[in-house]
Each structure stands twice: as structure tokens, then as C-alpha cells.
Design brief:
alpha+beta, Ferric Hydroxamate Uptake Protein, Chain A, domain 1, 5-stranded mixed sheet, 3-stranded antiparallel sheet, 2 helices, 10 strands, globular, signal, Transcobalamin-like_C, DUF4430 domain-containing protein, TAT_signal
């Protein structure tokens, strides 16, 4: 009977020790940085008459304000695209515009939970053209506030005629 009691005590102590040993790992996992950590990307803006901007930008998802569209989040959670905030192409454009002192404007579409980029550096899309967004040479399948950027990505806003 004493041996059985000693084994149970040993098993309980071992289980408790394992549980306590794993607690710091679980706590650490919860405090690690989220996916919205800033990333450095290369942003290119190509207008109908040539290059309007090219530079490396440090960005993360954030609220964006345009004259036409107002203020809305642009952090990858738009349209339920990602469960938590992430860096996005439109946030990168917004960061570049603020840091490099150029303008852009976009219309907010609540039904898409995203902006349509209408004008960059006074160059408008409009009736027969639009601003195409691509990452690493491929057009994004979702809006610029929904697509997740990774460090080193090549982001392009290209004026494209129909």
C-alpha cells in the first residue's frame, strides 16, 4: 500500500512539474510580436508617362485617411482577410506619401471594406484607366488593404489603361 501511495505521489508531482514547466512557454507564445510587425518593402509607382516614385518603405497595417474616402483601417483585417493586423500595399503607399511628401487619394467602398486608389501624385485613373496593385510581379487577388505584405516584397502601383 505504501508503494502504491508513493507511486501516485511521484506521478502527481511529475505531472505538476511538467505542467508548470510548460507554462512559461505558453505565456511567451502569447507575448511574442504579432503579425503586424513593421516590414521593409520596395514600393514603385508607375504612371502613364513614367516612374512617379520608387523607394524602400518601412510599413505596417494602420488607419488610412484620404480626402475622398475618409479614415478607415487598412491592416489586412478588412473583409475578414486576416484574423489580425498585417502590413498591406495601401498602407505602404500611405506611408510613402507621408514620408516622401506626395499625395494620393482613394474612394472607400464599404461593400468591399477597402479603398480604390484613384489618384497618386496628381495622376488619376478614371474612366479609361485604374491603378493596378501588384506584389512581386503578380496582381493582388484582393484589395490593397486586404493583402498581406512580407519583408522584402516588391510592391507596385501601376497606372493601367483599359
Amino acid at each position: 500500500m505504501q508503494r502504491t501511495s508513493a507511486r501516485r505521489t511521484l506521478l502527481a508531482a511529475t505531472a505538476l512539474g511538467l505542467a508548470l514547466a510548460s507554462t512559461p512557454v505558453a505565456a511567451h507564445a502569447q507575448t511574442t510580436p504579432g503579425t503586424n510587425a513593421p516590414v521593409r518593402v520596395t514600393l514603385t509607382v508607375q504612371g502613364p508617362d513614367g516612374l512617379l516614385f520608387k523607394g524602400r518603405i518601412r510599413t505596417r497595417g494602420h488607419e488610412v485617411t484620404t480626402a475622398t474616402g475618409g479614415t478607415h483601417r487598412c491592416d489586412g483585417t478588412n473583409g475578414g482577410a486576416h484574423p489580425s493586423a498585417v502590413p498591406t500595399p495601401t498602407a505602404a503607399l500611405d506611408d510613402a506619401a507621408r514620408r516622401r511628401h506626395f499625395t494620393w487619394d482613394g474612394t472607400w467602398y464599404a461593400s468591399f471594406d477597402d479603398y480604390s486608389v484613384d489618384t497618386i501624385k496628381k495622376t488619376s485613373g478614371g474612366g479609361g484607366a485604374y491603378w493596378n496593385i501588384s506584389v512581386n510581379g503578380t496582381s493582388t487577388p484582393v484589395g490593397g488593404c486586404q493583402f498581406k505584405l512580407n519583408a522584402g516584397d516588391q510592391v507596385a502601383f501601376t497606372w493601367t489603361a483599359f
